[in-house]
Amino acid sequence: YGGQAWSLKPGGRDGKGVNAPKASDNDxxxxxxxxxxxxxxxxxxxxxxxxxxxxEYADQIxxxxxxxxxxxxxxxxxxxxxxxxxxxxxxxxAAGKRAKIIRSLIPSNPQTLQRVVDIGGTxxxxxxxxxxxxxxxxxNGMCVVDNIRVGRSTIPNAGRGAFAQRSFTKxxxxxxxxxxxxxRKQLERDQQQPQLLLNYCFGHPExxxxxxxxxxxxxxxxxxxxxxxxxxxxxxxxxxxxxxxPYWQDKSVEQVLRKKYVGIVMKIVALRDILPGEEIVxxxxxxxxxxxxxxxxxxxxxxxxxxxxxxxxxxxxxxxxGMACFIRSEYKVLRYNRNNQQITQFVETSPRGEDLCxxxxxxxxxxxxxxxxxxxxxxxxxVENVPRTACTxxxxxxxxxxxxxxxxxxxxxxxxxxxPLAWRDLR
Length: 427
Hints:
Number of strands: 17
Number of helices: 10
Distance between the termini: 78 Å
Largest sheet: 7 strands, mixed
């Protein structure tokens, strides 16, 4: 077309190339707008799923086209012809299966491309209504993030709790919470060891339907026999854009469980005036209180935990505690042991969570260890000269407090007067 040459290939000529990420069919770092298919082999089933790299690729094409137009003299018709040629011939050759979806992100009008760059790229152009004015947000939005904060609970042995960030008047909404509907059977499949998720679900003893709250920090609200808040159904007029389907309360449990999206919204409401800094607490119901009291009454000494062992520095480890080391070994293999496992040298580095490996101590030396470390799912290495500063104690899998036999597993009860009759399928 008489303009300067450029290419969609990475590092094109004369600085005009689009240094785009490779539009392969199995990028592990991609994030999807509509589905999470990260780390899988992409086949035709995911061909039309938009991924993060598609936006990045489209952005670089748009920027290159804008720059090309600025540096080349041509009519509007010529700009259309060039853009059509790139979309029809160059993009399919460079992007393969991803060309179709990448093309859908790029406006067909060349005169629109500069505006795409100005507003921040193809993602912002595609979802231009994501950024709203303060006036629109005040009218249609609901700010709940600053309502409560998480801190150490004032209730003994309760761990963390939710605290008021500001004052609330009686009957004021503290936080709305969409509820995920779950079948009780899924969490109680193993009667001896029911799922921990039960402790966070709301339900009723006469129903097999459980509701898991998704509201910000709602799961941190603890139980108290003297509550200052209660949970109830969200009115349609209060939801302000949240998907709320009150008519689901007239459907059977089976019908609700068939729904593949969240349609139930509840709200935590102030039972009385609440002051800033006051812990927000609910009444979990008599069923929960009896279950908790039963656990406390039968409570015996807990197994020794890793934190205790760090203080006591015992040499022999109990069965439920293991030793772990922050290990980064040299790539060079020093030699192999009799089990044909690599022997490598410890590399001094600051601890990182991803480098923490469960180990077996083979030998203790003055100030360091020789250990057998599982450095990946499929590789075990013998590592020498591991300093004590790189070692710690951890709970072995399924031995922490969460997995102790007889630990509390009890649903939070929704009061009888609020729970729908249509959902009481266990009566």
